[in-house]
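Aggregate trends can hide what the representation actually does to any particular protein. For completeness, the protein is quoted in full, as a sequence line and a line of structure tokens.
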Amino acid sequence: MEAKTHESTFTFTDPDGFEIFVYKWVPAPDITPKAVVQIAHGAAEHALRYKRVAQFLNTAGYIVYANDHRGHNKTAGTMEQASMVGPDGWNGIVKDVKQLTDIIKEENPALPVFLFGHSMGSLIAQQYIQEWGNEIKGVILSGTFGMLPELEATITLIEKTVQGPEADVPSAAFGAMFAAFNEPFAPVKTGFEWLSRDEAEVQKYVDDSWCGFPFTNKMTLGMLKGGREIWKAEKEARIPKELPMFVISGDKDPVGGNTESVKALMSRYEEHGIKNITYKFYADARHEILNETNRDEVHQDILNWLDGQLG
């Protein structure tokens, strides 16, 4: 029988005054914790969607923390505050993740911490390891990417909208990105077939009002500019050379360009001397590999890699 795990929540206030909502999952009392996994969720979703993998990791001795980013679910509070992230929202989101790491270390001073980032969360993780990579045991990049088509043109287009009243309205460019991701997956039932082959999981996403909501122009611009900045050679060169890294993606994930964008990222990392990179591409899997039809395989691969870093 699967051991029971315990879920709790708490909040912390960041320097910009945002109250950040956090989930914490801990192993059953008869399991001695051996490490912590901190999760950074993706764009227009939320931390509670990672409960299944968190509880799986609990049974193997990992404590798991995951916060709702600014402008998302419990941290946002109301849909009117969705994707409202403050003047320097992107960097604020990244700093919130680091602030949570500091809390985790205060609560678990003897345990190593791993960072797991999915999709936009993997962008957050990419910036995190450039700034604080020496402070964690390893990083997992899921559904990640190292470039975006027409990035400069899109930034220029959105910059024109954020100068006036359209700054906080839903971004047409953000909606177009999601629509483009779905183009290869006809026939279209939901518009979110690009997420997973598991139709039940896709429907859960569609039915969740805190999934798939539109980013504002300001938030979209912040995310795209964040990507442009962290993909600069001088920034990627700051990643610790010995940092263990596990890169996982579906080979039909349009966000990663069916692995092409992921390979480009890893190639750049290797050129900077980052040697400890393990990767796995899952045949026919789409973007949310934790919610894919082969998710049990993905979960086990994550666990095996984590255990391998602990020796």
The CA atoms of residues 204 and 211 lie 9 Å apart. Residues 6-148+231-310 form a domain with the Rossmann fold fold (CATH 3.40.50.1820).
